[in-house]
């Protein structure tokens, strides 16, 4: 049966005050089913196929949970949404703390310079100087050691001097290291490059040691997780922006400065005018003389891009130091009244 009506004894419909379900007719006799009678008969059956007594209301089944479960689920969703909204509002209120905002701004700006400078310094070691990745990594060990030493000494110095002064001086030291990159030459420039790199990482290690504590220490303890997350995001954002912005700047300077010597095949010349990496790849397929000329021209252009990056990073470090010496000095790390812990009010 199409409607799922169970078989009933004759007279059941009459006892219930309804007509029995009529037959659909014999095929070929042209009779049509009695639709009103069928609807009247089916109305006496629940959706689960059971007969219900006369005078009772039909059972209506709903898809999904029961009404009480639906109300509970709705309340849970409402409470969860309110909690998420409160968490976002609390995270935004952290920016009312002067020390917190200043620390995040310094972290973002300083990592912008570090990301762009690191990109071109490592590129200089491998493509201009011709070092393998292992050799380039060994040349970077002194900078790593300097960063670790600065990170160990910075907390001791911060106990004796204002934190804003320590952070500002560290960023100025990093600025001096970036300025040394301006005078690096493609020939014989590696000592100056490594020395500048070491000085840069003295400033980076100092601020890296103090910056996280500065960010987390400027907010209430119950907001420490949000502060740490924003600190991590700010550093990653600054690093990514440095690679993107300063990398584009250095590439633009390279393309403007490269002068391909005569006698170079057109395909190799076009590759060299695109980037230093393409120049190195194209030189592998050329004879020794043209390859040396192409690499020399590309190295000079790449070094000019490195010099430009040094100027840009020095400006960024100066801006970071100015923020540290002004905003951090003015701010006392006070917590906004709406964010204080209950214990602090009592």
The fraction of residues assigned to DSSP E strands is under 5%
Q: Roughly how many Å apart are the termini? A: 75 Å
For this structure, the CATH topology of one domain is Growth Hormone, Chain: A
| Quaternary class | single chain
Layout of secondary structure:
Blueprint: H1 12-15, H2 35-42, H3 67-93, H4 98-128, H5 133-139, H6 141-160, H7 163-181, H8 190-217, H9 224-257, H10 266-274, H11 276-283, H12 288-330, H13 342-345
Helix pairs in contact: 4-8, 4-9, 4-12, 6-8, 7-8, 7-12, 8-9, 9-12, 10-11, 11-12
Key features of this structure:
mainly alpha, 346 residues, disordered N terminus
Describe this structure in a few short sentences:
The chain has 346 residues and is mainly α. The chain is 70% helix and 0% strand.
Question: Can you put this structure into words, describing what you see?
Answer:
- It is a single chain.
- This protein has 346 residues and is mainly α.
- The protein has a domain at 97-334: Up-down Bundle (Growth Hormone, Chain: A).
- The protein has 13 helices and no strands.
- The chain has helices at residues 12-15, 35-42, 67-93, 98-128, 133-139, 141-160, 163-181, 190-217, 224-257, 266-274, 276-283, 288-330, 342-345.
